[in-house]
Write a structure and sequence with these properties.
Helices cover 46% and strands 16% of the residues. The model has no long low-confidence stretch (mean pLDDT 93). The chain binds adenosine monophosphate and zinc ion. The site of adenosine monophosphate has 15 residues, from helix 1 and strand 10.
Length: 464
């Protein structure tokens, strides 16, 4: 099949031809692990999971290498560790924050039906030269200095953006315009407004590594140049992330990698997903419309979130609404019912053609509705193609019977009855009548309701 992908760098949709079809290589920027991932963060994870599955289908499961990093060194992490673990040495607090957050992230995305990437390197393992000789940040920075692309100033190492003639090509910015119109004040030690940090000094409490430039820590961008080179080499096939990463993050990754390796490209295709907003507004904590993946998974099955995400083409903005989630759930109820436990052993060419057209999942869903109707009319081939397509996209993770049972459990629970039982249990606990509070908890459990007690009070969910 032909696969065409849109490349942000060249601004066109081209036929994808891997550099080496026995080893197709993709890198996607992963999470900074300091807090629960929000539903916007789930978008690149799901979108590139679909691409990963498609590449595995086309080139073979063992011929695709997908790397998604974990950013576990970042000033946001330091701040969170100082806030949550005061009195603990900062590095210990940092480890606690990153470990817990990383585990949450892995659990969340597994529930969204995403396959684990081939490699999930952590930034902190790639700061210093490694025993296995894989690329690392300090060696890359040294190379950049040697080749005249970076300089030391004010205790930092900075990338000299004027040393690269086509710096700014990804974002489509002209460097001179940017320099002239730069609104950001130029730090005294920077030679040019766009120059960015490769290495900065750390105070005694901050996380730091001994380097030729003193004890310090890397800038954000250099980690992806190091980890992609470590697993995928100097030039690879696809690099992805959300469109907010185009500038400065990906622009700077390109600058670092190309200048360090002396290549004309870092990746042959640059792919960016559009942004997610909630009920027509930018998602933000202050607007009260900020949702973590975890909160949504308490109410909706992972496949409902996944389908809601894939209804929109990945480059378009998504408006995330409760109405959309409800529709997706109804659709999946119907699809599970129609697909039943079909063998799913017939490939569906129209689905492949739509996916091959720059991952047009919106169109795939139209094809699926057509197949569903044929299958419902008794066409067994259509039913098999339908089930095959759903599995290719990462659906039908449950049996039809389990799906129906989960739906039933959700439908049967009377929320006001649950709340009055919870209130009675809270009262029993306040009166230290633990026999009664346990009895109520068991009664709720029999209804399929699981309680979660916290300082803020008791919340509940239907066991899935
Ligand atoms: P961060 O942890 O902020 O670096 O983000 C991790 C990934 O999520 C990046 O690829 C971002 O581009 C992406 N991302 C963050 N917010 C959104 C959003 N609202 N919609 C879509 N993607 C997002
Ligand atoms: Zn990155």
């Amino acid at each position: 099949m032909e696969l065409r992908l849109y490349d942000t760098l060249t601004r066109d949709k081209r036929v994808f031809t891997p550099i080496d079809k026995s080893r197709v290589r993709m890198y996607v920027c992963g999470p900074t692990v300091y807090d629960f991932a929000h539903i916007g963060n789930a978008r690149p994870v799901i979108v590139f999971d679909v691409l990963y599955r498609l590449l595995r289908y086309v080139y073979g499961d063992s011929h695709v290498v997908y790397v998604r990093n974990i950013t576990d060194v970042d000033d946001k992490i330091n701040a969170r560790a100082a806030r949550d673990f005061p009195g603990m040495p900062l590095n210990d607090g940092i480890r606690k924050v990153t470990k817990k957050t990383e585990r949450q992230f892995q659990d969340d995305v597994t529930e969204l039906g995403c396959l684990p990437p081939t490699e999930q390197p952590r930034a902190t393992d790639f700061v210093l030269p490694r025993a296995d000789g894989k690329a690392d940040m300090v060696t890359l920075i040294k190379k950049l200095i040697e080749r005249g692309h970076a300089y030391e100033a004010g205790g930092e190492v900075l990338f000299d953006t004027t040393s690269m003639p086509d710096y700014g090509a990804l974002a489509g910015r002209n460097l001179d315009e940017q320099q002239a119109g730069a609104r950001v004040a130029v730090d005294a030690h920077k030679k040019h407004a766009n120059d960015f940090v490769l290495w900065k000094q750390s105070s005694a409490e901050e996380p730091g590594w001994e380097s030729p430039w003193g004890r310090g820590r890397p800038g954000w961008h250099i980690e992806c140049s190091a980890m992609s080179a470590a697993y995928l080499g100097d030039v690879f096939d696809i690099h992805g992330g959300g469109l907010d990463l185009i500038f400065p993050h990906h622009e700077n990754e390109i600058a670092q990698s190309r200048c360090a390796h002396g290549t004309h490209a870092m990746a042959n295709f640059w792919m960016h997903n559009g942004f997610l907003q909630v009920e027509g507004e930018k998602m933000s904590k202050s607007l009260g419309n900020f949702f973590t993946i975890r909160e949504l998974l308490d109410k909706w099955p992972g496949e409902v979130l996944r389908l809601t995400m894939l209804k929109t083409h990945y480059r378009q903005p998504i408006d995330w609404t409760v109405k959309g989630l409800e529709e997706s759930w109804k659709t999946l109820d119907d699809w599970y019912w129609v697909a039943g436990d079909a063998a799913g052993d017939r490939i569906c060419k129209p689905v492949l053609a739509s996916l091959g057209d720059d991952l047009n999942t919106h169109q795939v869903i139209t094809v699926l509705h057509g197949l569903r109707n044929k299958a419902q009319g008794g066409d067994e081939n259509a039913r098999n193609e339908f089930a095959w397509s759903l599995r290719l996209l990462g659906f039908l993770g449950k049996s039809a019977a389990d799906w129906a049972a989960q739906r039933q459990a959700n439908a049967d629970v009377d929320a006001s009855k649950v709340q009055s039982l919870i209130d009675a249990r809270t009262a029993a606990r306040a009166a230290k009548d633990f026999a009664e509070s346990d009895r109520i908890r068991d009664e709720l459990a029999a209804m399929g309701v699981v309680l979660k007690d916290s300082k803020e009070g008791t919340t509940w969910e239907v066991a899935r």
